[in-house]
Amino acid sequence: MSPGYGVFTVSLDFELYWGVRDKRTINEYGENLRGVRGAIPEMLRVFGDHDIHATWAVVGFLFCNDTAELKASFPAKLPTYERPGLSPYEYIHENASLDGLYHFAPELIKRLAGQSGQEIGTHTFSHFYCLENGQNLDQFEEDISAASRMAAAHGLSMKSLVFPRNQWNEKYLSSLPKFGVQCYRGNQTGRIYEASDAAGQGRVKRAVRLVDAYLNLSGHNTYTFDSCIPRAPFNFPASSFLRPYARKLAILEGLRLRRIKKAMTHAAVNKRLYHLWWHPHNFGKDVARNIEFLEKIAEHYRALNRTYGFRSLNMGELSQLGETHGKQ
């Protein structure tokens, strides 16, 4: 049963260096990571000004104040990835003291949790890769349990999950409710967005996804509410990744904005779900330009809200709506 209006959902994968550690060094990506602490308050300002509700899927490590607290919080079972360098625990053991600027953010999480409409979800405890060879369900459950304990220690309960690298694993879904997780963000439809391990994300796929951000190759990727809630945990799939400003592609910014606005309008008119996502560190460089772009999206949302009753709900609020409709 449809709620009778379209929904604009925003989710952000908040991970700092834990999300890029196996791909980039701090020297290579430090500017983006340092910029997060200035970008998040600006995002919150935009969200507050336009009444946009968002889910912040937080890597559990970020709750810690320092390396000692992090090491004391390790789960009983650690991931045994086959590919070298994937496990963050090896990296932690190799570094006696981790720089908090890149690895921890308890003060930012507290600020996020304190703003109306903002939900703290989980991005797993350790940025756990659910489709990489070597890891298993027991290790995943220990990871989610550790994330749940960490959140509880800060007075939070996490109802929403975003799988790192979008590696959602259907075999793991049935485990989520026992940890209080009610919903997750699935992937966009189509072969270019299929969940896979890193080996399955080749250059051609990435190139086509880049073009799709500017030109409509895959469709609007909006969803009926009923299709998201056939069973728990609910799947609120991604519609679009909000790519950051790119100087080399600056001439195409109008196309990028039009692509997003048209999909939002499609969702509003047809009473469907549109789910936009990105990482805070995507805005860490060229902050002003990225915030300006976000403002335009937010203004379009408010116009659709006035005209069509389009509403902004975070993933947790969508789950509550799903539970209500499931009882009818």
UniProtKB/TrEMBL annotation:
Transmembrane region(s): none
GO molecular function: hydrolase activity, acting on carbon-nitrogen (but not peptide) bonds
A Pfam match: Polysacc_deac_1
GO biological process: carbohydrate metabolic process
NodB homology domain sequence ranges: 37-182
InterPro entries cross-referenced by the UniProt entry: Glyco_hydro/deAcase_b/a-brl (IPR011330), NODB_dom (IPR002509)
Protein name listed in UniProt: Polysaccharide deacetylase
